[in-house]
Amino acid sequence: MRSGRQKRLAVTGIGLVTPAGIGAVPTWDALCAARPTAATDQDLAGLPVTFSCRVPGPDAAAVPGPKSWRHDRYTRLALLAAREAVADASLEPGSWKDTRVAVVVGSAAGGILTFEKQHARLLTTGPSAVSPLTLPAFLPNMASGQLAIELGVRGPSLHTATACASGATAIMTAAQLLRDDLCDIAIAGASDCMVTRLCTAAFAKMGALSRRNRQPEAASRPFDSARDGFVLAEGAGVLVLERSADATARQARPYGMLDGWAATSDAHAMTAPDPEGRGLHRAFDLALTEADATARDVDHVNAHGTGTPLNDRTEAGVLSRLFAEGGPTVTSAKGVLGHTMGAAGAIEAALTVLTLRQGIVPPTANLTTVDPAARSLDLVQGKARPQTVEFAVSASSGFGGHNAVLAFRSAE
């Protein structure tokens, strides 16, 4: 047994805020029903792409408290997800040893909405119109900092930024803090709200976004031969991690165990993945080794699956080389939720452990004709599939060549 397995890490709480709703239950239900959330977005009118996946409801980002208006939307979503995760773990803030609780929150863009609004004020009205709260709202570390303030914890409070792998990177950073005995509880995840006019225009200019303006609900099509890009989304996901022995001592019921993780770099290009997928393949190998597992042990893969031609082709190639015919089930949540950017890795990690707990693999929405590069994979499509899942992995990749893989084992 590897020394790392001597301190098994339990996932004891989950919090989700996604375009499918606020809370893990509506998100899981939408995934299992393959119910896409993409819709026309009035705030994007006049742009080349006029739809997105938004967290629903006019008060979706509301956070109780007299100072909630000071925070950017990405911070508010992170707070909502973290509150659910902490409550779900049956933890009471204030009852723990505050110096032994860590917070790690990732984000690709931080408070980009605040930045855009305040920059517009500067250009149209002048410097006197710029809010003094601009930087405290915009700085990417503010979600982790504000969460530490709200929970009153004084352990490590960190921010991770590895583009669309930020959420997975946050979870593995938190896991390492626990392994190194720098904390007893880690609250880890990510949040992003990049559905802005600037981000949408920029992604569209790159050719990264789907252009199905007349049929947004069918736009996000991971691994489908007719895919034409991802759908920009917002959301947050947070996990509570503890050492297994500590969770057992307080009679917590874990969703699953985080047994392995790994991060690698492509060293290939700013935005395009390495066509051979060497960095992603190595991340899988390292995460499985850390978990004392092999490819044959994997029952399920929650794929990055963005719906872009290059990403899906590369990822499908890696998975095809890793697993023989009849290998693990594979699914992507982005057909329903769109691409929540830095939050995706955290949201999808939560969905992976829910798959362990529920024994159900959600289908990939909008997957009707499997791309030839992915035909050797057991892609779940059409409807949810009951499956006993003992060991599952979640993969994330990001601009800059970042790859992150998390390996989870059943808690039973």
Describe the structure.
By secondary structure, the protein is an alpha/beta fold. Helix content is 31%, strand content 20%. It has twelve helices and 16 strands. The protein has helices spanning 24-32, 73-88, 112-124, 134-138, 142-151, 166-179, 197-206, 244-249, 278-290, 309-322, 334-337, 344-358, and strands spanning 9-18, 21-22, 39-40, 51-52, 101-106, 157-160, 185-193, 234-243, 256-265, 300-302, 329-331, 360-361, 378-379, 385-386, 391-398, 402-410. The strands form three sheets. Strands 1, 2, 5, 6, 7, 8, 9, 10, 11, 13, 15 and 16 form a twelve-stranded mixed sheet that branches. Strands 3-4 form a two-stranded antiparallel ribbon. The chain has a two-stranded antiparallel sheet with strand order 12-14. A hairpin with a 3-residue loop joins strand 15 (391-398) and strand 16. Helix 2 crosses helix 5. The longest helix has 16 residues, at 73-88. The protein starts with 8 loop residues before the first strand and ends with a strand. Mean pLDDT is 94; it is low at 1-6.
Main features:
412 residues, alpha/beta, twelve-stranded mixed β-sheet, 12 helices
The radius of gyration is 20 Å
Principal-axis shape: globular
Question: Distance N terminus to C terminus?
Answer: 19 Å
Count of DSSP H/I helices: 12
- Kindly state the mean pLDDT as a whole number? 94
- Main pleated-sheet profile: 12 strands, mixed
E-strand count: 16
Instruction: Kindly state the percentage of residues in helix.
Output: 25-40%
What structural category characterises the helix and strand content? alpha/beta
Strand/helix succession: EEHEEHEHHHEHEHEHEHEHEHHEEEEE
Low-confidence stretches: 1-6
Share in β-strands: 15-25%
